[in-house]
Amino acid sequence: MYQKTCHSCNKVSYSSYPDGLWYCPYCKKEITDFGTIQSNNLTVVSMEKSNEKKQNNKQSPSLLV
């Protein structure tokens, strides 16, 4: 995964491919010539684990006394 920070809006854009035209998804400015950083520390969570967390958070609330 690759990332660039837009100099116009200061938001981070991600892509799986570092080359080619690159536009900021937030402000639509072209950021092709900005520095590209390879992000190897991103964690991918499977949908199964994500759904499991959602179900665990939907437990019935405790009664307050």
From TrEMBL:
Native species: Anaerobacillus alkaliphilus
This protein's name: Uncharacterized protein
Domain of life where this protein originates: Bacteria
Organism phylogeny: Bacteria, Bacillati, Bacillota, Bacilli, Bacillales
